[in-house]
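Record type: ASSEMBLY
Status: queued
Input:
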Amino acid sequence: MKSEKNRERITTKQRILDAIRKSKKIREKITKQNILDTVNAVRKSEKTKVSFLLSHSLIWYIIFLIVPLGITFVISLWQMEDVNLIPNWTLENYVEFITEGVFNAPWLGVLLGFAASLIVITIIFYSADRTVFRKKQVMLARARAYHSHVLSRLSVHLFHCFRKALSMCRRSQFLYAHMLRVATRVAKLPQTFFERIWTFFHARALNDAFVISFLGALMGTIFTLILPRFGFSVILSLVVGVILSLMFWLLLIRRYYETKWLGAFAVATLATSVYAAISFISASPLIPSSVPLYAGVLIKSIFVSVAVTLGSVGVGYPIAYYLSMKVEKYKYTLLFLLMGPYLASYILLVFAWKVILDYGTAEGGGVINAVLLNLGLIKEPITWLMYNIGPVVFILIFSWGPWLVFPMFANLEKMDKTLLEAAADLGANPRQAFWKVTLPLSKPGILVAILFVFIPTIGEFVTPSIVGGTEGMMYANIIEGRFKRGYNWPLGSALSFILLITTLIMASILIRKVSLEQVMESL
Amino acid sequence: MKIDVELKNVTKKFGDVVAVDNVSFKVKKGEFFSLLGPSGCGKTTTLRIITGFEKPTEGEVYIGEKVMTDVPPFKRPTNIVFQNLALFPHLNVYDNISFGLKIKKLPKDAIQKKVEEMLNLVRLSGYEKRRIRQLSGGEQQRIAIVRALVNEPTVLLLDEPLGPLDLKLREEMAVELKRIQREVGTTFIYVTHDQGEAITMSNRIAVMDYGKILQIGSPDEVYEHPNTEFVAEFIGRSNVVKGQYKDGVVEVNDLGGMIVGAQNFDSGPVLACIKPEKIFVGKKLDSLDNIFNAEIKEVYYQGPITQYRALLENNSVISIISANIRAGELFKSGDKVKVAWNKENVVVIKT
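Status: finished
Output:
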């Protein structure tokens, strides 16, 4: 740091000296005033350069970001009466986001289920830590004695996983401490209050157990709640809930807490099954009849976005891989062909899909239904092809997929192909070489692709409005409805603002996972 | 003696281009064998045929006395150090070295032990956690070598690994490589275009040009007794003179007869090669077999030696390397001198 500053000083000095040399005054006697003038001139030119750049980006920021956002935020605090905007400052619109559709009876069951499962899992983990893991050495020795046995080997592995899940990162504690400190300061509570709570939570095992169970219970609850909305049966949604919470754990928590597959599986299964059991015992319906309207649709939009991201990266990556690794002739011609769909207007493409998938008109509807009906393969038109969330996801995946090939292709092209030969030379067969070398090295390309598709898709508006119907409605369609049909600008603004915050959080989570600098370097 | 690698009449064609033309050689166990030749002579292709990255159009490859012609690279007991090293940038030093061992599914503590041993061998202990980017060129070099060596290959192949290093580092690494080879005793096949490296390190050298092996022999054999003009020119630069051979004398146009040592030749056109450092230069020279008049044209003083370029009476240029044994005995450009050499030092090549 210090040397850098010195270097800076040296370069400035150098420039000043150069300027002096270049100036015609060199033949005159160099006085102190002369030097000072030149120094000031150089400094000034440097300053103006920086401020020039700054002013540009500032103007951009103000015009395109801060002004519209500010207006949105201000309007979101107002109210609507008939057709008049009334500037009385209130948070009612934000309250409506949470409460709309919530408070019918089954929701109490869900809350109860969540709270109870939280408590039960905490107790399980806490007692597990106190009893089982304290006897770690004994247990390990016993397991090692039967080490040849597959089951005992598995149990040792499982044991380590649980152990790791429990010995979670100390960072979480710092987070608690910080939150508590801020809370006490804001609420103007005495410092002793903070200390008392801190010492209570400082019992580390309890702390960790609580974090694990909180996340577990939350995941179990959310997934078992959301899935029936997509038409899953109760049993199926429980199964899918386990799988999804497993994935959630692996993607977000695993990196942070360094647990392993089995640990993740254990927590996910435990959380979901405990939630289900408690809901069952408390005799409340497992799945409520209604989810909060706005919040529910927002969560649904996030799910759609995740599905589209996974799907389109899944479609795009093999294409990019194939083009970069296997194709030699016509590589760039093929790449150019991928841009074909983007030469037509996007709305046109979606309508083309509507023509293919539609049902219900006199001729039997869209192409697929018409063909199948005329061939006599079906008697009634297939209705699930259209006007639900399925075609929305499908069309979005196939419209994003080719586009995502480009960043991933660029990344794969930049990869040194001798690395694959090196892997083969070291004994890796082509499959192992792919998992151990190609995939880790194409991570930056994939992450850029994810950034490309994930953020715009949360606010996707065109596709669901054409092929989604009422079932496949996404969050942006609701915003549009509030502005146009409902004519409730303040609510619409509040909803937009919430969308913005959500997107911001999502983007920052994604960017935190890998530094943007690293990503851009590798492209 | 056990033969580790054998190539039998190997030919490789890329379309119409013949990259490797009917190459055969045997490499003994524990040998340091060099493939030497200018760029584009097919030496790297030969190496890639041994590792299995290229399939020969014709011929057979034996490794450890087994036919390996159709075995894919990941099943061969060979390891290669690439020209650009090809270290995995996403892995640290430890993971790079243990890559092959992990694929073989060795137990963890065995891997750790081996990696430590290897890092000791190249004097880089404690570097396990470093990223590849944080290493200097020479350090990366050594990591690349141990990453290959740790798998205990039957033969280690090195594809101009010292190419990207600067001169001083290259000399150090050459010594280091020789030491490593001596300590582990693995068979090395070394590809290079630098004759200096090949001569210092190898037990045997194969000189290649246009896909063909011209000569195989120990460094001094190849240096002192080249069998073709190319070998003579490529290794340590020779003065090559055209002439007619008859009864131990080569008649050169406008210069006269040159007595040569070689006897078992039929008369006819030949090339006579004389290494520059075997030529004496002085005002008065006698008791040598061939003495000619010359005029010094260029002088390059290089400290321990001086290089001269002199004009013979037939207007051909001859280059001379003279050791600076006594100070102050330099010739200047334009000096009339005598140049001389002994008959044993003339290599005669039939054309």
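Annotation: Residues 3-230 of chain B form a domain with the Rossmann fold fold (CATH 3.40.50.300).
Annotation: The mean pLDDT of chain B is 87.
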